[in-house]
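Re: [ENG-882] Designed sequences occasionally contain unexpected residues at chain ends

Forwarding the minimal case from QA. Structure tokens:
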């Protein structure tokens, strides 16, 4: 399909319009419309586990895990014809992109879900350089767990001084002894606790991701947590460097990379020098021990190690948060989950007790509602500064994500934290986030532990 369209365009390029007319082409208009590249969600297999296991049946973009890495220059367009060859409806959400609302990929809110066999043309410009990713937004708890995700890299106009740029998508799978995806995807126990936590960690779809590097090289590592629910606590071994961006947005001052935490959907961009002797790795600290999840085997030394620390990346064009005193405010109360003591919540316009909620697959609530409200949490005027106080009155951590925006945490001393699109809240923690409502549309605000959003942790804001 794609090949034929391409060759047709090549033909057009040489023959020109006049040549075509002479050849008697009946649909000049159609021929001239450019056909975007296809991104197909379909079934496939992936070698997640070692060779003694069968490859794991997965769902993947273009049939692979991860899907293709999309790379564009800042300000360039991304155009993809999404083709749904899955047995259920799907969409593509371009996570972290301050996108045109119609391209945000949220069923019911911004588009109808794409039925099996149908397609949808996504097209948008990427205003911010950085590390982003894409994933489905329909039955995300199932589709993400089955392997549908890929990286979207927006390059700075001038690339930083590094020898290599490596994208590392970190996932957590729940596999059976045959290395098949455990089919208990809707398990209420997961949904009411920390989400679907797995037993097999992969980097770029490989349980033992390996590469090579030279001693003294400087690498840019773009880490993305694509897991349904696992929070990673990571550190570096044989690598020494700085965190230069969070969720795509550059830090004003790069921070030394020690131990750092990545909640679901978060990204960390590192610039690191290779300091190890024979091996360098990214280490995940789990309850039962520490594991190298990505390893570089070190070959000969390249030139001497760079002396200067990593320079900050150029800032993206973010609107500065205005005075907080006069900002539009909203409150978001998060309740529910196991041991949360929630008695009930509103659903479908009725007050329901916990038991009936659970029967409907709901165990959490935002402001007393367990379903997606018809009215937004907040309606902001275009350009207004907004502050949302989020109170996590549950016994669980949550990864709160706002679509179409980056926001800053209001710190205790009133200053603002780093730009993020997903923020981790600890159990019983509360804080405020602030941002400028400069992107019009209807935007989701939800927990990115995708089982939690499916079971009640979902609301939206309107900017007009
Ligand atoms: Cu990464 Cu609502 O999504
Ligand atoms: Cu959550």
């Amino acid at each position: 399909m794609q090949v034929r369209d391409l060759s047709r365009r090549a033909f057009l390029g040489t023959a020109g319009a006049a040549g075509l007319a002479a050849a008697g082409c009946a649909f000049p208009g159609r021929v001239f419309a450019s056909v975007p590249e296809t991104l197909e969600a379909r079934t496939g297999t992936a070698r997640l586990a070692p060779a003694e296991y069968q490859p794991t049946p997965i769902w993947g973009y273009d049939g692979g895990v991860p899907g293709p890495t999309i790379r564009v220059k800042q300000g360039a367009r991304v155009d993809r014809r999404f083709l749904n060859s899955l047995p259920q409806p799907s969409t593509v959400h371009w996570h972290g992109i301050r996108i045109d609302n119609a391209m945000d990929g949220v069923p019911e809110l911004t588009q109808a879900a794409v039925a099996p066999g149908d397609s949808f043309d996504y097209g948008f410009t990427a205003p911010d350089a950085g590390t982003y990713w894409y994933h489905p937004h329909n039955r995300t708890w199932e589709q993400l767990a089955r392997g549908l995700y890929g990286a979207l890299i927006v390059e700075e106009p001038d690339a930083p001084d590094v020898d290599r740029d490596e994208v590392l998508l970190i996932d957590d799978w729940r596999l059976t002894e045959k290395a098949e995806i455990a089919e208990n995807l809707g398990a209420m126990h997961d949904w009411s606790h920390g989400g679907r936590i797995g037993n097999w960690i992969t980097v770029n779809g490989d349980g033992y991701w390996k590469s090579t590097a030279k001693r003294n090289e400087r690498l840019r590592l773009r880490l993305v947590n694509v897991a349904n629910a696992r929070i990673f606590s990571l550190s570096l071994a044989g690598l020494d460097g700085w965190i230069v961006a969070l969720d795509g947005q550059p830090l004003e001052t790069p921070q030394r990379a020690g131990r750092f935490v990545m909640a679901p959907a978060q990204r960390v961009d590192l610039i690191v020098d290779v300091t190890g002797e024979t091996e360098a790795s990214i280490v995940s600290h789990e309850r039962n021990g520490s594991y190298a999840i990505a390893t570089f085997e070190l070959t000969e030394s390249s030139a001497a190690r760079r002396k200067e620390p990593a320079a900050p990346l150029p800032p993206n064009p973010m609107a500065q948060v205005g005075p907080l005193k006069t900002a539009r405010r909203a409150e978001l109360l998060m309740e529910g989950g196991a041991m949360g003591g929630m008695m009930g919540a509103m659903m479908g316009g009725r007050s329901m007790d916990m038991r009936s909620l659970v029967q409907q697959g709901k165990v959490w609530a935002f402001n007393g509602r367990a379903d997606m409200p018809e009215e937004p949490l907040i309606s902001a005027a275009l350009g207004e500064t907004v502050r949302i106080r989020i109170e996590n009155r549950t016994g669980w951590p949550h990864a709160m994500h706002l679509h179409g925006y980056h926001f800053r945490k209001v710190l205790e001393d009133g200053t603002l934290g780093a730009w993020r699109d997903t923020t981790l809240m600890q159990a019983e923690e509360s804080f405020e986030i602030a941002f400028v409502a400069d992107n019009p549309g209807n935007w989701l605000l939800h927990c990115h532990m995708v089982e939690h959003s499916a079971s009640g942790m979902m609301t939206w804001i309107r900017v007009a």
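QA comment: On inspection the terminal residues look reasonable. Residues 93, 95, 135, 137, 265, 401, 403, 444, 446, 448 surround CU-O-CU linkage (ligand 1) (CB under 6 Å). Proposing we downgrade this to a documentation issue.
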